[in-house]
């Protein structure tokens, strides 16, 4: 929908679905109804890639990586709100669902008022006048004194080359290899990120020596330790914001996913030992969530940059669905009665596969949005992320000459 009818209407539909059905979850009177409602919520979550892609289409390449990563602060803040809501609700799951739905409702109202259409998408559809009007409004909001002089009447806008707009493009010779590796990375981070969250909660919810004996009622959860692990996501995100444009998207993912796998493996090994101190487990949980969340944030940024305008939301949503699939699998691994050692080995292997797939992706640092696939994949510049000045272009929201890319 994002590629077919526009970024804004598709995103508004998504947030309305999440807000309405998220609230309805709290009044479900049986398991079947609750499951059906949550499935609809999950369908709405599939559209959350759209505003991310929209913002990418506004940004200049010099600020794109840092600005896109900054959005992840809101994701991490939302996770903190979930922990706080769980602490307030305790065993009352209906109250927890209501508390979690409130930010979604507020976000829907904000989105309806403030989120604009993507000028790149408008250009791709031949709606140049609307694209110019959107750019002028963006310039005005950003404090430019004269948006009309910045984007005058009659300005020529240069659109990207048209692309095929369907899921069939995913298997095409042009994009098949990229989507193969992107799918592995997204499936890997979906498993690693959500499994790590559940693993940390499981470890600090009961004594490891008593694993499998609790009936789930009245479990004493160590909220302090869990909160500390959530804070690690803020730390990791802040660090990578200052390093992503130095080391590139590929190197950042390779380092974080591999390091996260090491931390998770050690966490599981020490959690299975009776004499392990709580402080050591907290440190390892901190590192596990730090690296896994940081890697996932870079993957979100990298995906938005590597795809062209005509397939950006379709392709991003497709690979995002891979993470949803492995996210569904993760509870069966973490909470399926497997020993911690086995869980650690499984997640470590997943991190290795994710690391390898990340290494095979084209670098996007310092090049124009959606042009990475046109770069020479055999050159050292692409692998190291060295900018190519001949292929750089400016964002439509920041240029002032007579041609906008």
Summarize the structure in words:
The chain is 66% helix and 1% strand. With 405 residues, the protein is mostly helical. Strands 1-2 form a two-stranded parallel sheet. The radius of gyration is 22 Å and the shape is globular. 44% of the residues are buried. Mean pLDDT is 80; it is low at 211-216 and 376-405.
Number of strand segments:
2
Strand order of the largest sheet: 1-2
Secondary-structure class: mainly alpha
The biggest sheet, with number of strands, parallel, antiparallel or mixed sense and barrel status, is: 2 strands, parallel
Structural key phrases:
disordered C terminus, 15 helices, 405 residues
Write the layout of secondary structure elements.
Elements: H1 7-24, H2 31-45, H3 49-56, H4 61-70, H5 72-89, H6 93-114, H7 119-124, H8 128-141, H9 147-150, E1 156-157, H10 176-203, H11 223-271, H12 278-306, H13 312-334, H14 340-359, H15 380-384, E2 403-404
Parallel strand pairs: 1-2
In short:
This protein is mostly helical. The chain is built from 15 helices and two strands. Helix 4 (61-70) crosses helix 12 and helix 5 runs antiparallel to helix 6.
């Amino acid at each position: 929908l994002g590629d077919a009818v526009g970024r804004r209407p598709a995103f508004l539909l998504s947030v309305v679905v999440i807000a309405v059905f998220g609230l309805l979850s709290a009044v479900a009177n049986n398991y079947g109804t609750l499951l059906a409602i949550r499935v609809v919520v999950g369908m709405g979550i599939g559209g959350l890639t759209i505003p991310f892609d929209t913002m990418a289409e506004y940004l200049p390449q010099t600020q794109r990586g840092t600005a896109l990563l900054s959005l992840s602060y809101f994701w991490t803040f939302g996770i903190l709100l979930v922990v706080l809501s769980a602490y307030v609700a305790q065993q009352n799951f209906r109250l927890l669902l209501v508390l979690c739905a409130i930010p979604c409702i507020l976000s829907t109202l904000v989105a309806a008022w403030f989120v604009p259409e993507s000028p790149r998408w408008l250009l791709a559809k031949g709606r140049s006048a609307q694209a110019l009007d959107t750019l002028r409004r963006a310039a005005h909001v950003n404090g430019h004194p004269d948006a009309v002089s910045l984007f005058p009447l009659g300005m020529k806008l240069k659109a990207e080359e048209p692309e095929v707009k369907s899921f069939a493009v995913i298997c095409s010779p042009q994009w098949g290899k990229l989507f193969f590796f992107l799918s592995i990375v997204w499936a890997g981070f979906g498993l690693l990120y959500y499994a790590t969250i559940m693993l940390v909660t499981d470890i600090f919810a009961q004594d490891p020596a008593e694993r499998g004996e609790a009936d789930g009622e009245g479990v004493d959860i160590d909220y302090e330790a869990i909160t500390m692990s959530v804070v690690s996501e803020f730390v990791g995100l802040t660090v990578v914001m200052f390093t992503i444009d130095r080391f590139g998207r590929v190197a950042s993912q390779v380092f974080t996913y591999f390091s996260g796998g090491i931390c998770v493996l050690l966490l599981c090994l020490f959690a299975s030992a009776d004499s392990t101190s709580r402080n050591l487990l907290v440190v390892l949980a901190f590192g596990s969530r730090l690296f896994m969340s940081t890697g996932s944030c870079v993957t979100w940024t990298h995906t938005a940059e590597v795809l062209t305008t005509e397939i950006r939301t379709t392709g991003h949503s497709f690979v995002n669905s891979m993470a949803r699939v492995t996210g569904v699998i993760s509870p069966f691994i973490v909470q399926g009665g497997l020993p911690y050692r086995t869980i650690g080995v499984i997640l470590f292997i997943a991190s290795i596969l994710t690391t390898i797939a990340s290494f095979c992706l084209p670098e996007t640092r310092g090049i124009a949005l959606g042009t990475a696939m046109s770069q020479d994949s055999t050159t050292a510049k692409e692998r190291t992320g060295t900018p190519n000045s001949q292929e750089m272009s400016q964002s439509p929201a920041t240029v002032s000459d007579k041609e906008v890319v």
